[in-house]
Design a protein that fits this description.
161 residues; single chain
Length: 161
């Protein structure tokens, strides 16, 4: 259906699994963005910026995975775009699950849930690579880039009102 006939095989399963994982990832992003806007405009803008900075390279990588799995460019682009609907569903879910007692009860479970998920993924994917790195210069570069990301978000939090 969406696959290039010359590249069909075992790789196509990885493409479909990637689409599923990307949809779930985008759902949690939608939860985080909506819940953070429920807290305040500033928190919402900072969360949106952080997710955008994360998503650009992430989506390019996912597109490459789909191409490698045998999808043609147009189908891969359409399917990548369709996974973004997960973000909209997550945002709608966060808004629709607001408690009659107030926003605090909704945010009290959504933000820790999404933050914990983001931290888990970062630690599971990033930390092992840092620990396995033999070259101290490369490790230092990675730690400096991590610190620069934290610095950018801190500066944005000071600028955004």
């Amino acid at each position: 259906m969406f696959l290039d006939s010359k590249k069909e095989g075992a790789n196509q399963v990885s493409g479909y699994l990637n689409l599923l994982a990307n949809t779930i990832d985008n759902f949690t992003h939608g939860l985080a963005v909506a819940a953070s806007f429920l807290v305040s405009k500033k928190i919402g803008l900072l969360t949106t910026m952080a997710i955008l900075l994360h998503e650009i390279p992430h989506e390019v990588g996912d597109f490459a995975i789909l191409l490698r799995a045998g999808f043609d460019r147009w189908s891969a682009a359409k399917l990548q775009l369709s996974t973004a609907l997960g973000g909209l569903l997550g945002a709608c879910f966060a808004i629709c699950t607001q408690s009659p007692k107030g926003v605090e009860e909704t945010v009290a479970w959504i933000l820790p849930f999404t933050s914990g998920g983001f931290l888990y993924i970062a630690l599971v994917n990033v930390l092992p690579d840092l620990l396995e790195e033999d070259d101290p210069w490369r490790s230092l570069q990675q730690v400096l880039l991590l610190c620069s990301g934290i610095t950018v978000m801190a500066l944005l939090s000071l600028c955004v009102e």
